[in-house]
């Protein structure tokens, strides 16, 4: 439990509302579901009593909230090197390398970004998912956002849900695109292979915008922006358009070598064994001050070398 409870009076203008609705208005830094859990656990009292979430309020009652620390996971802290782009009391922005798993899971119980975060900042053990706001696939590099406190995490999750966090990616796809565009295709779990995602009529809405940065002999360098953040979204959308990301081991299909490719290009295409995808830019409002923040990182060396070789093969 936190040492100091928060005490507030229910405003008269909230009279007649359900208690859980009134609490959500009074404590916007916490999610409604979290407030309900605290209420049911007895961590919130109203005039010293423990009413039900659906009970109406009269206005003028004294609410005492004792925030309950909730463990983020069973992950153990581990000393893992983190490339921290920015950090303050509210958030962390990390440049994740390709190959680093974000969350522990089957086959990856240790050595994940979450383990490293818990070692870097012990207070993240009291924030859901160690504060991680969104995820990147294991072999996708780039910027990832973490909320260090419960209020900051709640605010950032709401910003993400409201599409108020701008995420930009760089990618190389197979084939030569004629121009930019938008892909609007719903995404859901594959009906047979549960480790894959697929385009499904009953899937969740997903929108991907893209622009052509450079065309090569048999590939295209693109920038991508997301309106939604479904699992494997960019990879699934471009595979659906028959322009799977170069190197994608799940959705890329068989390697196709361009005609007249140099030995160096052939060697590069055969050795690049991850999806050519990098989260290059994040823009959002600071969860405490509201100040606009923008962070951008260049692709890692393997991605830059890939672009260099592709350009050579086009000259």
Walkthrough of the structure:
This protein has three domains: 6-65, RNA-binding S4 domain (Structural Genomics Hypothetical 15.5 Kd Protein In mrcA-pckA Intergenic Region, Chain A), CATH 3.10.290.10; 84-161, 2-Layer Sandwich (Pseudouridine synthase); 166-314, Pseudouridine synthase, CATH 3.30.2350.10. Helix 1 crosses helix 2 (32-40) and helix 6 runs antiparallel to helix 7. A hairpin with a 6-residue loop joins strand 13 and strand 14. The strands form three sheets. Strands 4, 5, 6, 7, 8, 11, 12, 13 and 14 form a nine-stranded mixed sheet that branches. A three-stranded antiparallel sheet has the order 1-3-2. A two-stranded antiparallel sheet has the order 9-10. The mean pLDDT is 89. It has helices at 19-26, 32-40, 113-120, 150-161, 233-240, 263-271, 301-314, and strands spanning 6-9, 44-46, 62-65, 84-87, 91-96, 141-147, 166-174, 181-184, 187-189, 197-199, 207-215, 219-226, 277-285, 292-296. The protein is elongated, with a radius of gyration of 23 Å. It has 315 residues and is α+β, with helices and mostly antiparallel strands.
Features:
Structural Genomics Hypothetical 15.5 Kd Protein In mrcA-pckA Intergenic Region, Chain A; three-stranded antiparallel β-sheet; 3 domains; 7 helices; elongated; 315 residues; 25% strand; alpha+beta; nine-stranded mixed β-sheet; Pseudouridine synthase
Map the helices and strands.
Blueprint: E1 6-9, H1 19-26, H2 32-40, E2 44-46, E3 62-65, E4 84-87, E5 91-96, H3 113-120, E6 141-147, H4 150-161, E7 166-174, E8 181-184, E9 187-189, E10 197-199, E11 207-215, E12 219-226, H5 233-240, H6 263-271, E13 277-285, E14 292-296, H7 301-314
Helix pairs in contact: 1-2, 6-7
